[in-house]
Amino acid sequence: MPDEQLDEDAPIFAIAAAAELASMHAQTLRQYDRIGLVVPGRTRGGSRRYSLRHIRQLREVARMSAEGISLPAIARILELENEVSALRRQVRGLEQQLRAEVQQRPGARVFAAGATGAVVTLRQGARVRRATEVVLYRRPEPDAAAEAD
């Protein structure tokens, strides 16, 4: 079998298997589903199906519960972790867009003011007459622009 990434969101485990993998009773998983703590996928027939991500969440819930954290607090922690994950995915996407945009445009452009005052873009390496004012424009780096704010 080639190196394939396992989809950790694929709902593949029935409740009995998920309970065993999470070292919990199946009734506990049903209760967590009812209160919205760890909500599995459902088959067309309505059976619960848990993914690897759900199993990891169940183990985390068990750990936090054993440390004395209340179920409403655990629910909030999981909600915030999901929000952080979504924001990280969004940031990665925006960073990719930014990199693509920067690659499509040249990093530095040279402009000159003509005799009439019109702005003229010069080819890189072109010589300018002495009577012409030269201004170098360099797009700020993304990190530098963020620090300036």
UniProtKB/TrEMBL annotation:
Coiled-coil stretches: 77-104
InterPro entries named in the record: DNA-bd_dom_put_sf (IPR009061), MerR-type_HTH_dom (IPR000551), MerR_fam (IPR047057)
PANTHER family on file: HTH-TYPE TRANSCRIPTIONAL REGULATOR YFMP, REDOX-CYCLING DRUG-SENSING TRANSCRIPTIONAL ACTIVATOR SOXR
Keywords of the record: Coiled coil, DNA-binding, Stress response
Listed name of the protein: MerR family transcriptional regulator/heat shock protein HspR
One term of GO molecular function: DNA-binding transcription factor activity
NCBIfam families in UniProt: HeatShock_HspR
HTH merR-type domain segment(s): 15-80
Source organism superkingdom: Bacteria
